[in-house]
Amino acid sequence: MKLWWRFRGKSSLWSEYLHGRYCRNLHPTIVPYNRNHSSVWHRLCRIRDVAEPFIFWTLGEGSVSFWHDNWFGEKPLAQLVHRDTYTMESVHYYWHEGEWNVPRILRIIPMPFAQIICQIPIAAGQGDIIVWTESSTGDFSTKSAWEAIRQASPRRQLLADVWHRSLRPTISVFLWRLFQDRIPVDARMQQKGFSFPSKCQCCEAEETVSHLFIESAAVQGVWQHFAAILGSAFVIRGASPICTDLDEHTVEGRFTSGCRNGFHISPTSSPSPSIVRWLAPSPSWFKLNTDGSSLGNPGLAGAAGIIRDSAGHVHLAYQFALGTGTSVLAELTAVWRGMELALTHGLAPLVVEVDATTVISLLQSRASGNWEVQHMIMRIICLQQLLVADVQHVFREANGAADHLAKEAASLQLTRVLHHDDITGILRGIICLDRQGVPHLRRG
């Protein structure tokens, strides 16, 4: 899978050579395999159907395939829109002066898909970015590839305790072999076909795993000796008595490991409280306060915001239900939706206040963060330029109106736009307090 990732990224002379030799005017995913091709190309063809579904493209210059590359979302358009033939145009063929060419798109794409396409931002001036969808950062890793394709078994707490870092590797390996019945006792060797008598070295009984580690009088004396030291009783329960109190002893092992390495307890100090308040924007400017809420992260999510002028008067507020989502997705959606509404209603220039430092970092660095929100980050950056918007951080205590709206949107799954006369109850009270400059106490 790593080989396919390197080939698709075209980041080396090797990948450029393979594209030129085998693909030519065809997309790599539809090139037929020929026995005369090289062994490397044979390996790529065998893995492409497995690896390609995990590749996504963030649009830049639009040189990726319109039909066969997955820049749309869940799947490539060729798997969603059924046609007799699929042409090999690049995505930028359907652009005009840096925007989507809607009439050209509608000639070949149904309206529901065309509407989604027109919402995808175009980041002109930079290359298309290949994204590995199984990684939170979008970068390929062998671990994420293995996790994506392996048949995972249910997690067993016993094995998690056996391989805990508080135990030495030699002990963990021995315990794993013991639980998997891989200890070469006499009875086990007889099962493998070796012909010799089985006799315990401490008594006359047959040498089996259960006898050697649990049932014999000699080993029970050992277990009882150490059980007394650890302050627990040695009790045989069920078919796996050797596992008795394993969790308790693992915890003790973790504590012993901490004592061996030394604990460091730093003195605590109470942070000094500070006063924060909502500040009105400068004259002729508008302020957008946004917030996102996810009840569980991920869980039921909602995005919301409120736009006010320099006198503190509300021009509009909004709430969007997002279904199940993360807090980062909710926060970014709140900023994006608010800026779109500000652009539609001509509320510019704009100051945007967000209480999530993660969102501020993503927007300032233009980092990809989680690949799933990359499109939204690009939308926000484009809207920033159109609105002359300044995105700033604000403390949560001074973002009460947006916080109230977001929690309500998440819990009740509301989607609506509110104007001044629609605002009542607690929200109206929060807005009045903000307009009067009432301070809030912040600890830390």
UniProtKB/TrEMBL annotation:
CDD domains hit by this protein: RNase_H_like (cd06222)
Organism the protein comes from: Sesamum angolense
Ranges for domain RNase H type-1: 282-415
InterPro entries in the record: RNase_H-like, RNase_H-like_dom_plant, RNaseH-like_sf, RNaseH_domain, RNaseH_sf, RVT-Znf
Name of the protein: Ribonuclease H protein
GO molecular function, one term: nucleic acid binding
SUPFAM superfamilies in the cross-refs: Ribonuclease H-like
